[in-house]
Write a structure and sequence with these properties.
ten-stranded mixed sheet; mainly beta; 167 residues
């Protein structure tokens, strides 16, 4: 047994090195800043979303309105606007506009370190089956739902039909 004793410290040292390397690899794999961040490619990280410039145009009809806003993403990960809800309408759909063609879509991209802009003549929200015809100056609650980020709740002013933001 005394012959094996000199080998034990060497085995312990080798086991400690293997354990340290294994822990280092595990910690590196678990670190949150591995460039992926769930955002898929690019700079990595998580989306950091905020909403600005939101408004609803006073509708000329009693059953349909349009909504506009900008979703800014200061984060390194992309996201998608997947739906919008409001007590003003039983349905809110997302639309893209290419030229003069409007098309309903299931989601709109919010690129990393960029923005999604919904504007008159471009991509926008269509609110249908309105509970009432909103008046200029009224505030409407919206909840924006995203693929990965938490929902964002905002109060949106109703602006005149001819309103165009100064941007």
């Amino acid at each position: 047994m005394t012959a094996a004793a000199p080998g034990i410290p060497g085995v312990r040292k080798a086991a400690a090195v293997v354990l340290a390397l294994g822990l280092s690899a595990t910690l590196a794999a678990c670190s949150g800043d591995d460039g992926d961040g769930g955002g898929g490619g690019g700079g990595g990280g998580d989306p950091e979303l905020s909403v600005t410039g939101a408004y609803v145009s006073q509708p000329p009809m009693t059953d349909m309105a349009a909504g506009y806003l900008t979703v800014r993403n200061a984060g390194g990960g992309a996201d998608e606007l997947t739906s919008v809800t409001t007590p003003l309408a039983s349905e809110v759909t997302l639309h893209t506009t290419k030229g003069t063609r409007m098309k309903q879509v299931s989601s709109l991209d919010v690129p990393a370190d960029n923005r999604l802009e919904l504007s008159s003549g471009g991509d926008h929200l269509m609110l249908t089956n309105l509970s009432h015809r909103p008046k200029v100056g009224e505030k409407v609650s919206f909840t924006l739902h995203f693929a990965t980020s938490a929902p964002i709740e905002i109060k949106v002013p109703v602006e005149p039909t001819t309103y165009r933001p100064k941007d």
